[in-house]
What we know:
The complex is a heterodimer.
Chain A: E1 2-12, H1 52-64, E2 72-73, E3 76-79, E4 89-92, E5 99-105, E6 111-121, E7 125-131, E8 134-140, E9 147-153, H2 160-176, E10 189-198, E11 210-213, H3 218-237, E12 245-250, E13 255-261, E14 271-272, E15 279-280, H4 283-291, H5 297-308, H6 312-318, H7 322-336, H8 342-351, H9 361-371, H10 379-392, H11 394-401, H12 405-419, H13 425-436
Parallel strand pairs in A: 11-12
Antiparallel strand pairs in A: 1-9, 1-10, 2-15, 3-4, 3-14, 5-6, 6-9, 7-8, 10-11, 12-13
Chain B: H1 8-16, H2 22-35, E1 41-44, H3 46-61, E2 72-76, H4 103-110, E3 114-119, H5 153-160, E4 167-171, H6 177-183, E5 186-189, E6 209-214, H7 217-227, E7 257-261, H8 271-286, E8 290-294, H9 302-317, H10 335-348, H11 354-377, E9 380-384, H12 400-405, H13 411-416, E10 420-428, E11 431-438, H14 444-455
Parallel strand pairs in B: 2-3, 2-4, 7-8, 7-9
Antiparallel strand pairs in B: 1-3, 4-6, 5-6, 5-10, 9-11, 10-11
Helix pairs in contact in B: 2-3, 5-6, 7-14, 9-10, 9-11
Amino acid sequence: MKPVIGLEVHVELKTKSKMFCGCSADYFGQKPNTHTCPVCLGLPGALPIPNKTAVEWCVILGMALNCNIPLFSKFDRKNYFYPDLSKGYQISQYDEPFCLAGNIKLNTGKTIGITRVHMEEDTGKLIHGNVDGEEVTLIDFNRSGVPLIEIVTEPDFDNAKDVVDYLKKLQQIVRYLEISNADMEKGDMRLEPNISLRIPGQTDLPNYKVEVKNINSFRFVEKAIDFEIKRQTEILEKKATPLQETRGWNEAKQKTVSQRVKEEASDYRYFPDPDIPPIRWSRDQLAELKKQIPELPIAKKGRFISEFQISEYDSEILTRAIESADYFEEAVRIGKDHNVSPKSLANYIINKKINLENTLPAELIKAIISTSSYATIDNDKISKVVGEVLAQSPQATNDYKAGKTQALQFLIGKTMSILKQKIDTRIIIEEINKQLK
Amino acid sequence: MNYSAYSIKGLRDGFKKRQFSSEWVVKDCLSDIKDNKLNAFITVCEKEALEKAKEADKKIKDGVDLPLLGIPISIKDIYLTKGIRTTAASKVLDNYIPQYSATVVEKLEDAGAIIIGKTNCDAWAHGSSGENSDYGSTENPYLEGYVPGGSSSGSAVSVADNMCFASMGTDTGGSIRLPASFCNVVGLKPTYGRVSRYGIIAMASSLDSIGHFTRYVEESALILSITAGRDMNDATTTNEKVDDYESYLRKDIKGVKIGLPKEYFTEGLDRKIKEGIEKEVKSLEKRGAKIEIISLPNTKHANACYYIIQPAEVSSNLGRYDGIRYGNGRDLFGEEAKRRIMLGTYVLSSGYYDAYYKKAMQARTLIKKDFDDAFKEVDVIITPVSPTLPWKLGEKTSDPLAMYLSDIYTVTANLAGIPGLSVPIGLIDDLPVGMQILGPHFSEGRLFQVGQAVEDSGL
């Protein structure tokens, strides 16, 4: 049986203000209902004003995901009732989203299709608690109206590992664009995989779909998908069909649990929001937005390899976050004047796990130079000299082998005197140990 | 002393010359409201209005000059007024005290106006007669037992019966023009997007127009010059420059091309109303206007189209009144609101959307195009406001469809987003009749010009 997996990802933007009002969007950890106004509270007469930056970021993300950007787009109302939804409808996008038909290429070389990228607003948050001995549900509207981007994929995945790779790449792009912190624990990035299985011989999509919610880490998404594949396989093997439902990941129990069985599709009665005029882009405007896209991870990784002659592995690590990539490039620029090669810089940053926040690139260069006025000696030479020293000093060698560390000092000193260079002692010790193994 | 004979201009002159004070005028209005039996107000702001009047008098003394300084006006109880109860004439909002004021309310207060009270209306602005209020029907000031027209019923009556000097209303399908016509006052529905909707309880957002009632065309121009303009809180207001409306007043109408759409003068229109309009048109022609018979072929689809789009938006707009954050529970919605919520929910449901809502939007485009085409030939269009004279209280309350048909000549302007002015043309069988003047988008100035010519016809 072959899994069929699609993904819906919500990314909360880090704009200063909310999607349709001037309230601060930075609600995390704030006192409940302090970031609210008539608009996000859904008071009578209040009207939404779209946040220009949020709209532009949505388009920029779409561009970074290789989407088509239609010249016409609009906001729609998605009508449903829930206490955390202040207006009785969510402003979202239905049939004409900002971005269509994009993709992300995975490490395996497989391409995952992105159906659409659209803009919407977040809801408030329900808090269940106990007030004066009474079980109550409280509502915090601080999150109400915070801009959200939804990224929907085609059902192109067939395993959990690819899903995780996709998510990491998406997170990386979002962070490169600096439009969201994409912090899963804070709810900046929320994942909803939908999973079903094709039985052998089946080519069309399965006639059911299980959506999994409450997943707040990449590790959990992998576990949840694997669990679902196993659970559904067992049902299908019994010639039954899994229920069309929404399940939640329970980390404590290490399994998914049923939350809501969908009898039929909800009818949200979408229609164009009459309060917001449609958006019409000119080609010039879109070209301007395109210019704002920085070099993206894949391009940067390729350029680092060709421009700095570092390994693919090093480049991958350095470009994982825009901060480390920028740091590396800055260090390379300074290092050039001090004969510190990009390759040694890459090694140093990766192997020594430099704290990039505490060490300026210039300080790093300084540190490398002071420890490595000796550093640039090739390994073959060290290996040869150490071999000679060990052969010429059987007594000291045996002493060291027997655990007498003073003998080690003798061997190091002798090696140094032959090399006539200041060398990092640790490299020599490493080589001695290696040869005596 | 009674000040009702004064125009707004007359009041301002009197204030300046210290012949009387704003406080005296406000007191006079308050006592008129108290004595009045027509049920035009839901909330009277006696204390606040008197305080504001004293402040205004002090400003006048200090030489402050504002266009409405010290002038008492009323506001439909669907406009949010900070600290003053706002009900939309529905018990759902019986205890609702807004945290903020509508943009238009702020603009009027900045211009010195004094809010004397919140007027009665059909609940949520759903109605054509003024009878669908949870706070009781409003009555026509001209003939006992007759409706004043709705939904901005109390606003029209408050101006017609001298309880204030201007009133703000809303017009989604004729809710200003119809009561203006029924109460012998001037009613303006501005171009959609000309006046901010922010802070006004939405009925049908793509149709809601924010206008007003005055006794004279000149005063209608004055109020619009205050309320019009871009509002950063309403994305549907435009950057279009606000016209100098006063400059159109007392302007010759020689050469103005007037279209009479044949579809608006067919059967169903009261013969006497038709004759009244013809007389006015003749008079305009005598003064140099050019009259042309024109056609707006899609008029017949207008009402059907309106009664799909409007309830669809209503059903969504009323969703927020869930009684969780403010107001009472949903069980207090009246019959008409429930009817519209159900109609709207139905036409937006998947499987019906294409057949109803989408079709209606397409018809709306055709109706707009009718007007666009017509305005290539003529400057303004003259039509009746209502096919009938005001009817008796209770006559149509059990027949929603008959009630809906009274909007037949007014809904087109809302669908097309164009401005419309209702000007009185006299009494027929002791009941007032108005005439509608329509123009292209942002042509309010032209409407005032023609409207004033009608006002001055001496008929």
